[in-house]
């Protein structure tokens, strides 16, 4: 029996996944949660074989959860299921040790098969995602990504400087560099472009 924790912030999707996967004779959903922090707690509590998680959720993202599990050397394998065919997300998922990455519009039988493959230690990637990743190299540094996430949250340069303990001029320099790399006219456009490519 493959023991699974589900993490998905859309209640209807979460319920559908749980119900459909529980119909599989070899899969048991041991917990279903709606945010990244709860996913980490559920993995710690239930010790599942596989965490099936969305990317964009309240609190920690699915990629953040995967990275934290890897940092903890947790044996739970991670399968990402998402609506986003963004190459940047796939690259970050691979860096975080994720074994599977599939799209939500796949048939449930295909999702169940992906779970079985990931449980067996095999890598599963939707073909359209592999193509997107090949064409989408992330030009940003970790610090630039950090600042652009703050911009997406609506922070001013002054706010960012205070939060990250940087000089305001340093913040401007990082953001200017990121804007140039992304051919953006302003910091908001740079942040949006980076998000849409899956780099944040």
Automatic annotation (TrEMBL):
Residues 3-119 form the Response regulatory domain. Residues 133-198 form the HTH luxR-type domain. It comes from the Bacteria. GO terms for molecular function: DNA binding. The modification 4-aspartylphosphate is found at residue 54. Keywords: DNA-binding, Phosphoprotein. InterPro entries: CheY-like_superfamily, Sig_transdc_resp-reg_C-effctor, Sig_transdc_resp-reg_receiver, Tscrpt_reg_LuxR_C, WalR-like. One of its GO terms (biological process) is regulation of DNA-templated transcription. PANTHER family: TRANSCRIPTIONAL REGULATORY PROTEIN DESR, TWO-COMPONENT RESPONSE REGULATOR. This is LuxR family two component transcriptional regulator.
């Amino acid at each position: 029996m493959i023991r699974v924790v589900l993490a998905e912030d859309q209640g209807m999707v979460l319920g559908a996944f749980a119900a459909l996967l529980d119909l599989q004779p070899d899969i048991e959903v041991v917990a279903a949660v709606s945010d990244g922090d709860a996913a980490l707690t559920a993995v710690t509590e239930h010790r599942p074989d596989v965490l099936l998680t969305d990317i964009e959720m309240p609190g920690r993202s699915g990629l953040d959860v995967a990275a934290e599990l890897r940092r903890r050397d947790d044996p739970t394998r991670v399968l990402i299921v998402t609506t986003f065919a963004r190459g940047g997300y796939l690259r970050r998922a691979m860096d975080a040790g994720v074994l599977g990455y599939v799209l939500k519009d796949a048939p449930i039988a295909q999702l169940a098969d992906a779970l079985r493959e990931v449980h067996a230690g095999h890598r599963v990637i939707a073909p359209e995602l592999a193509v997107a990743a090949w064409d989408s190299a992330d030009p940003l540094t970790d610090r630039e990504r950090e600042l652009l996430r703050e911009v997406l949250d609506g922070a001013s340069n002054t706010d960012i400087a205070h939060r990250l303990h940087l000089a305001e001029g340093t913040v401007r320099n990082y953001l200017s560099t990121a804007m140039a790399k992304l051919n953006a006219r302003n910091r908001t456009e740079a942040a949006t472009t980076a998000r849409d490519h899956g780099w944040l």
